[in-house]
Amino acid sequence: MKVLIIEDHQELARNIHDFLAKEGYICELSGNLETAREKLGLFQYDCILLDIGLPDGNGIHLLDLIRTEHKQSNVLIISARNALDDKIVGLDNGADDYLTKPFHLAELHARIRAVYRRKNLGGTHIVEFNEINLNTDTFEARIGNTTLDTTRKEFDLLLYFLVNKNRVLSRQSIAAHLWGDYTDNLANFDFVYQHVKNLRRKIANAGGTDYISTVYGLGYKFTMHKHTAETKNLDEAH
Questions:
Q1: Cβ atoms < 10 Å from Cβ of 224
Q2: Which CATH number fits domain 126-237: 3.20.20.140, 1.10.10.10, 3.40.50.2300, 3.40.50.300?
Q3: Which residue, among 46, 105, 34, 104, has the nearest Cα to 75 in the 3D structure?
Q4: CA dist 62 to 92, 94, 95, 198, Å?
Q5: Residue 122 in this model has a pLDDT that exceeds 50
Q6: What is the pLDDT, as a whole number, of residue 61?
Q7: 25-47 pLDDT tens trace
Q8: What is each CA distance from 109 to 3, 103, 152, 153, in whole angstroms?
Q9: 222 forms bridges with which residues in the sheet?
């Protein structure tokens, strides 16, 4: 999961970043509205942690932008303000949850996961598609009764494909989702091809169907049907 932390308190922001990074999240930091707008204009995020009290304005003002440009992003407000009116305004303007400072990082993590399950996974930690079964709590992937020996990146890649079925995902968007926004400046994304190839091989070895097809010149798409031999040849060539 890719998270944008919009928080001006540097120590808290770094603590959140380090805690979530240890849990396998890709985290980006922003300490004010201006840099947050820049990042939101360039990148997509699964979850946005939004502080209300920022040095150059009220974080609530970002919600319109987030909901217009990042409709699929989960927004969790973190704020020192405990007034009921602030919570109501935040939730009415599109926030998915509200957490008042101070808080335990474990609780923040639980809130992030709960919001993600509710909004993206139908409220469950189990993601299923035909013979594929993913457990987002244990990070276990199964093909039928066979457990896949996936790395964390491969698990996250498969989950990203499943959540975005029938949508074309560019190599750049996959790279940014799994490795962070710094990949935007890379000259090529051949490492994405290698991860997709490894994932396909492991699924095939476990007797699963290869639903991942290459959209030539664009990226990849997880489809409802097995891709053709012609598409597989294109994949090997590129």
A1: 9
A2: 1.10.10.10
A3: 46
A4: 13, 10, 10, 39
A5: yes
A6: 83
A7: 989 999 999 999 999 888 888 89
A8: 11, 11, 18, 19
A9: 212
Which amino acid is located at 89 in the chain?
A: V
Q: Which fold has domain 2-120?
A: Rossmann fold (3.40.50)
Q: If residue 21 lies in a helix (H) or strand (E), which one and from where to where?
A: helix 10-22
Q: Which residues pair with 78 in a beta bridge?
A: 51, 99
As a whole number of angstroms, the distance between CA 105 and CA 103 comes to 6
Domain residue ranges in the chain: 2-120, 126-237
Residue type, 91: L
Task: Extract the runs of DSSP E, i.e. beta strands, from the chain.
Answer: 2-6, 26-30, 47-51, 53-54, 57-58, 74-79, 97-100, 126-129, 132-135, 140-143, 146-147, 168-170, 212-215, 219-222
Task: Report how far residue 154's alpha carbon sits from residue 162's, in angstroms, rounded to the nearest whole number.
Answer: 12
| CA distance between the termini of the chain | 27
Cβ proximity of 161 and 212 under 8 Å: yes
Structure tokens at 58: 């009220």
- Token pair belonging to 103: 């808080």
Report the distance separating Cα 140 and Cα 137, nearest Å.
8
Residue with tokens 């399950």, as numbered in its chain = 117
Q: Which of 111, 112, 203, 128 is nearest to 163 (CA)?
A: 128
Contact residues for 104 (Cβ-Cβ < 8 A; gap 6+) = none
Average pLDDT, the chain: 85
201 closest CA partner among 151, 165, 136: 151
